[in-house]
Write the structure tokens for this entry.
Amino acid sequence: MCETHARPLPPGIAPISADEARRLIRSDSGAALEALLDRASAVREAVHGREIALCGITNAKSGRCPEDCGFCSQSAHFPDAESPVYPLLSADEIVAQAKAAERAGAREFSIVTSGTRVASERELAVLEDAVRRLRAETAVEPCASLGLVREEDLARLKAAGLLHYHHNLETARSFFPNVCTTHSYDAQLETIRTARRLGMKLCTGGILGMGETPEQRVELAEELRGLGVDCVPLNFLNPRPGTPMADVKAITAGECLAAIAVFRLMMPGAHVFVMGGREVNLGERQDLIFRAGANGTMVGNYLTSAGRAPDETVAMAERQGLALRPPETGRPWAYGGEAPHEAGWNRRAVEAAPPRRLPVVR
Ligand code: SF4
């Protein structure tokens, strides 16, 4: 197994046990939550300093997915869910979106596609071209999220310059049957291990607030810790109309913050990113994600829902006295110190599509 790219821990900082995590994750209000946030913030600063990272994504291929992830409006199993539907974007469009994300302060840029895996040689060739051009024309660290990718496909993308692979476990193994029935937890683990075998940085997290218990959130964190992932993207369910999770009751902002803090304390060296759903679930308290121990978030729109304007995300970090961490690709970074107001580069992903009835494609 290749070694993790997570930060080394300074003396005096050690991961907390799962038992302690199960106790702390219940500290979701009042003085107990305040103490938990202070502890997580101190650990983040000791290990990662006062820099945070932003990442941008493109929804490079949307809709018509044969998988049945219950939170996802792109699944063909949920025909009443509205989501954009389009085939893989061209390399030109992917690169243009990455350049816009870079100007908004992104250090990583992820190409995200719907579907079980890369569908054809033609798609793979477009992705290879896009990754090559990202390395040649931008400073961003390229990442991709292409489902249960085949090892030979990922090896080609790595050779083209792909640095990170993203694949969420989504939730704890014990809750996964409530989320998805068309692929297994073990298939996901195998994908992640494949990326690690190839020496890629692993970006693996999940979605909180899908009906799992706080203890199951700790179970997910234990799984991620065992995998030695480098980045942990934490999403909070933003229920999409027409999906089986449309009516799941949101967890409180306090529960979200306690979970972020516990993931930070369980994996002090990992880069904990707070991603989709922070606006909906944390509302006015989203500034507290960094105090809860996060050291990254997303800039721009999400896959199928709108995010905050980039300048507001940068301002949120600056209000905490934090600075943006530049990429490590050795190229000059096009972020000029000021993020644009409009989150327009990946607007296509969030444009509502008319309700449609899609066949389940297999
Ligand atoms: S595999 Fe991805 S695109 Fe497909 S239903 Fe699941 S989350 Fe959505």
